[in-house]
Amino acid sequence: MCIRDRNMINSPFAMHPLMACAGFSTILSGVYVATRDRVNRTQNTMRVHLLANSVGTSALMYAMYVMYDIKEQGHKKHLQSNHSYLGILTASALLAQTGAGFYAYFFPAKSPMEQRKRFAAHRKFGTATVTVFAVTVATGASQTFTKSMPVRLAAIASIALGAVSILHIVVSKH
After folding, report:
1. In whole angstroms, what is the distance from residue 67 CA to residue 86 CA?
2. Each residue of 27-76: pLDDT tens digit?
């Protein structure tokens, strides 16, 4: 939708929302794969989860680089909006979450109890991270497409609520 806007065609900025949305979708796919069958989780399931989250996080990092580069080339000030601050928070949380996932995968806990504790913490922090990511995407979309504050707030609220609802259903499925 956003890439079809007349002002976005042939714009280097178009890669920012495109890669952010691709990253968000890929990360949600990784969440789905990891949570769809907690009882019969396999090494392959965890590998797919790890790969999806790594690719999604990389897409977000590229989206942030695109924005950084555009600001630098135009000699514009960085971090001027709620979206930009949320983007930094989202990127930091995703990097921490991905790092924790790598650590848990390559250095498993010695006891099943410790492994369950790690997984519970990873899942809770991941839920919070994806929620912040959804709000970041929503604020970016609302800042791009409307200048009306009530419409902008409605867009942010509806996208965030939808993302949280989907995530809740996926995470609590089993």
Report:
1. 14
2. 888 887 777 766 677 778 888 888 888 898 899 889 888 888 887 887 87
Tokens of 63: 């989206």
Are 26 and 59 contacting, i.e. CB atoms less than 8 angstroms apart? yes
* Residues 133 and 87: beta-carbon distance below 8 Å: no
Residue indicated by tokens 């979450």: 97
Rounded-to-integer distance, Cα 88 and Cα 38, Å: 31
**CA neighbor of 46 nearest in space, from 131, 113, 104:** 104
Residue 86: Cβ within 10 Å count: 18
Could you give the CA distance from residue 61 to residue 91 in angstroms, rounded to a whole number? 7
* Residues 159, 141 contacting (CB under 8 angstroms): yes
How many angstroms separate the first and last alpha carbons of the chain?
A: 34
Q: Which tokens in the block code for residue 22?
A: 């691709």
Determine contact, residues 17/3, Cβ cutoff 8 Å: yes
pLDDT tens per residue, range 125-137: 888 888 888 888 7
Please give the model's pTM, rounded to 2 decimal places. 0.71
State the pLDDT confidence band at 92, using cuts at 50, 70 and 90.
Answer: very high
